[in-house]
Design goal:
458 residues; 60s Ribosomal Protein L30, Chain: A; 50% helix; binds fe (ii) ion
């Protein structure tokens, strides 16, 4: 649901994962998009204070320091209650609404063992019971992504399946011919040489780091954006970084190369909010979250270099760039068909467009002469059992994509089958207990620091 359409005269805000908002009576609408995450609303109808909290996991699996307490129900819910009281609520008036924690998509054996959302919802229930906060509405579990919306003015709330706004009738898209797809690929700007050199360096270790660094220095816009990212809260070592050379000393040559590649990738995914992106820049946010999460899985598994996994995470969905214009035009029909038909993304693309983003990605990767390992990832990240060259890398990208599609709902459109999950974990030598550690590592709100870096360059 788009809150802008429904609540005229109200400002609207999306509450991202591991975030909460509390309001007194004001014309404001808060929405959380939930897959396996759990959303909680607290209301004090007497003092007219209300809030919405978007929870990632039940409790921390990490030993020691927790970087963001709002990730977990266990540490975040007491903060949420505290924030309500600070804003004028009385503890004895509090009421709760819970939603999310779904399996999402086709339910398979793997979905049930991946029932992390159910565990988070259990944590929330136990906390509310202990605090004697009554639950006035609960809609958890199920197989669909949903939105949880709170109107802070009258304290009304809604839980709705995502995709309801695509209910209107529209015309079935024309399937694309082979010529149209090739024409579209030709229109895409060729990948810059410096990006190919970075990819080559990561894959073969042949290209010279020094030479690449000097090329980044010469590309002034690129260099400035890299510096901004180096100084963002995400990467900053605590000292100002005012030149690429200093960035190399403080963060390492490889990190600088990966940041440059991230910025080049952003150029392809753009900032639009239609098509595959469901919010402004959604496709790139997904690519960046994928890069960081894939790097983490590679380091846990030890079978693939971290840099290779980061690069593959950035580029795995590059085929969506080829189809995005077609998707923009046919978005309503497409989304309606997928949500109502409960299809995977590949099934829906194949049926409605006559091709898939993995097929167009493979063609684009070939035309860019990307290495075999990356072509494999681009072609098989939804069906990793078919990968031929580097199955371990493709399984890493598959796991990251599966998890992100369920915990970072509402950014970009995807729906991935959980069937190959058992095999993926086996190939990588990872247990099921490693999943929460990976989920905790997904960067929350990366759009914020990319946005800052864009603004300071405009
Ligand atoms: Fe994909
Ligand atoms: Fe993806």
């Amino acid at each position: 649901m788009n809150p802008n359409n429904v609540y005229a005269g109200h400002s609207s805000e999306i509450v991202p994962t591991a975030n909460l908002r509390v309001c007194r009576k004001e014309r404001r609408v808060l929405t959380a998009y939930l897959g396996t995450c759990v959303g909680v609303i607290l209301l004090d109808p007497v003092n007219q204070v209300s809030g919405l909290y978007h929870i990632l996991l039940g409790r921390s699996n990490l030993q020691g320091h927790v970087s963001n307490e709002l990730i977990y129900a266990e540490s975040g819910l007491p903060l949420f209650v505290g924030e309500m009281l600070k804003n004028g609520a009385d503890r004895e008036n509090l009421q709760a609404v819970i939603a999310g924690g779904g399996f999402v998509g086709h339910a398979t054996v793997n979905d049930f063992s991946l029932n992390i959302g159910g565990q988070t919802a259990d944590h929330v229930h136990r906390f509310l019971e202990k605090e004697q906060i009554s639950i006035i509405y609960s809609e958890t579990g199920g197989y669909f992504n949903c939105s949880l919306t709170l109107n802070c003015f009258d304290q009304s709330f809604q839980v709705e399946p995502i995709g309801r706004e695509f209910a209107e009738l529209s015309v079935k898209p024309e399937t694309l011919t082979k010529d149209e797809i090739l024409h579209q690929i030709q229109r895409i700007k060729p990948i810059p040489q410096v990006a190919l050199k970075i990819i080559d360096m990561i894959n073969t270790e042949k290209a010279s780091l020094k030479q690449i660094a000097s090329e980044i220095r010469q590309e002034q816009v690129l260099a400035a954006r890299v510096l901004n990212l180096c100084n963002s809260s995400f990467y900053s070592p605590g000292y100002p970084i005012d030149s690429i050379d200093r960035g190399i000393v403080l963060l390492g040559e490889r990190r600088i190369m990966l940041l440059a590649l991230s910025i080049i990738t952003e150029m392809y995914f753009g900032h639009q909010s239609a098509g595959y992106s469901m919010v402004k820049g959604g496709m790139f946010i997904h690519a960046f979250q994928m890069a960081v999460t894939s790097e983490k899985i590679a380091s846990m598994s030890g079978q693939v270099s971290r840099e290779t996994a980061y690069t593959a995470g950035l580029l795995h969905d590059i085929g969506k760039v080829v189809l995005d214009q077609h998707m923009v035009k046919n978005q309503t029909y497409f989304y309606r068909n997928v949500y109502n038909g409960n299809k995977t993304l590949l099934e829906a693309e194949d049926e409605l467009f006559g091709t898939t983003h993995v097929s167009t990605g493979k063609l684009l990767a070939e035309s860019w002469h990307l290495p075999e390992s990356l072509r494999d990832v681009i072609a098989y990240h939804h069906t990793p059992q078919l990968a031929r060259h580097t199955p371990e890398l493709t399984y890493i990208i598959y796991i990251a994509d599966l998890i992100i599609s369920r915990f970072q709902v509402g950014l970009e459109f995807d729906r991935i089958s959980a069937t190959p999950l058992t095999r993926a974990l086996d190939v990588l030598g990872l247990g099921r207990d490693s999943l929460p550690e990976i989920i905790e590592f997904i960067p929350q709100n990366p759009e914020k620091f990319f946005q800052n870096s864009r603004e300071s360059n405009s």
